[in-house]
Write a structure and sequence with these properties.
By secondary structure, this protein is of the alpha/beta class. The chain has 2 domains: 79 residues, Urease, subunit C, domain 1 (Roll); 275 residues, Metal-dependent hydrolases (TIM Barrel), CATH 3.20.20.140. Helix content is 28%, strand content 24%. The protein is built from 12 helices and 20 strands. It has an 8-stranded parallel beta sheet. The chain has a 7-stranded mixed beta sheet with strand order 3-2-1-4-18-19-20. It is globular. The two termini are 19 Å apart. Bound molecules: zinc ion (ZN). The site of zinc ion (ZN) has 5 residues, from loops.
């Protein structure tokens, strides 16, 4: 174990396997320098995970009407224990005024503590501009869906204030292409999702500035036309940043591997899409007005249906499950030297989503001192995880 006193530590860089000395001050990384010595027994150091889709965590539901300071603190602490220090607080389809009211309340709540501001780095607004078609809408209520307007996009920007916004919408909705242009002009990232858009419509959305696709393989019906469906239309493109839920449930392991073979490696990111049951045990949890059952298998279902509604995935488990699904392919992706076997999967849940949202996250001077120190077992699985946020070790 490397020295960890004060505001410096020695560990192996997760990408290269080289021993480095990391120095931080006032919550920011100041120096990363090579440290002599072989360091094979040293732990790994990697940037903390960044999750762009979190609906709730550790018993806290972000769609509840009254989320207290203690509730938000519990969700953040649960995410810290899962390797994630920064996330986009995700709100999904409901009456537009209600959704904006919720956003205003979270924006006010976030100012109550520096730790909240550090953790909630922005917002993911998933809906209400989605496809209401059965299967494509998933667990989103069709009656609250609507077409986007330029005014709605401007209202969203005003409510959220400055800072990252990820907006998931279906480009086939009336007015969506103009709305994408406006959202991008106002500094938002636009991701397509819960959509059955044609190839031509997807092309128009990309030309208007959409750069992502939300949880590919989900937000679509279980049975699809074998000749032409939303999966094929997206897999044919290579220009969108595609998010996947790597819990071995939302995307089957063969499809997960196939997607990795077809898309450029840096265009895939992972999100948990976690709901309140994540980071807790099996049981019944709320997601807004929905009551959801989390089984022993961590599957989250609308009771009485096979519909998934969010996941119970802890981000760090997402990395390990991605590695388990990808096997040798992900180990071969190690960028340089003798990095950690999970380095490429780790990047898809940290540096890549952060870069897409314009957040600094690499292990380099000037980035936030948000990192994980990891001891692995012989087989490469994670044995211990320590997490630093803003230069402070979390509980
Ligand atoms: Zn969704």
């Amino acid at each position: 174990m490397g020295a960890m006193k004060g505001s410096a530590l020695v560990a192996r860089d997760y990408r290269t396997g080289r021993r480095v000395r990391l120095v931080w001050r006032a919550g920011v990384i100041r120096e990363v320098t090579p440290e002599p010595g072989a360091g094979r027994g040293d732990p790994w150091v990697a940037p903390a995970l960044v999750d762009l889709q979190v609906n709730g965590f550790a018993g806290t539901d972000f769609r509840a009407d009254s989320v207290s300071e203690a509730d938000l603190a519990r969700a953040i602490a649960g995410l810290h224990r899962s390797g994630c220090t920064r996330f986009l607080l995700t709100l999904f389809t409901e009456d537009w005024k209600t959704l904006l009211g919720r956003l205003r309340r979270f924006r006010a709540l976030r100012k109550h503590a520096p730790s909240f501001l550090r953790a909630v780095v922005g917002w993911h607004i998933e809906g209400p501009f989605l496809s209401a078609a059965p299967g494509f809408r998933g667990a989103h209520p069709a009656e609250a869906m609507r077409d986007p307007s330029l005014e709605a996009i401007r209202e969203l920007r005003r409510c959220a204030g400055p800072g990252p916004i990820l907006l998931t919408l279906a480009p086939e909705r009336r007015g969506a292409i103009a709305a994408i242009r406006e959202a991008v002009a106002l500094g938002m990232r636009v991701s397509l999702g819960h959509t059955d858009a044609s190839a031509a419509c997807l092309e128009a959305a990309a030309a208007a500035g959409a750069t992502g696709f939300t949880h590919l393989g989900n937000g679509c019906p279980p049975a699809l036309d074998r000749h032409d469906n939303i999966l094929w239309r997206i897999l044919e493109r290579t220009d969108l940043t595609v998010s996947l839920i790597p819990d071995q449930v939302h995307v089957s392991p063969p499809l997960f591997r196939i997607i990795h073979r077809l898309l450029p490696p840096d265009r895939i990111i992972y999100v948990s899409d976690a709901m309140a049951g994540a980071g807790s045990g099996p049981g019944v949890y709320r997601l807004g007005s929905l009551e959801l059952a989390v089984g022993r298998d961590q599957r989250v279902r609308l009771p009485g249906t096979q519909l998934y509604a969010g996941s119970a995935l802890r981000p760090v488990d997402g990395v390990e499950r991605a590695v388990a699904m990808l096997g040798d392919a992900v180990r071969a992706e190690r960028r340089a030297g003798d990095g950690a076997p999970w380095a490429a999967a780790w990047d898809r849940f940290s540096t890549l989503p952060a870069a897409w949202m314009g957040l600094p996250s690499t292990l380099s001077p000037g980035a936030p001192a948000d990192f994980c120190v990891i001891q692995t077992n012989r087989d490469g699985t994670i044995r211990t995880l320590q997490v630093w946020s803003g230069g402070q070790e979390t509980e």
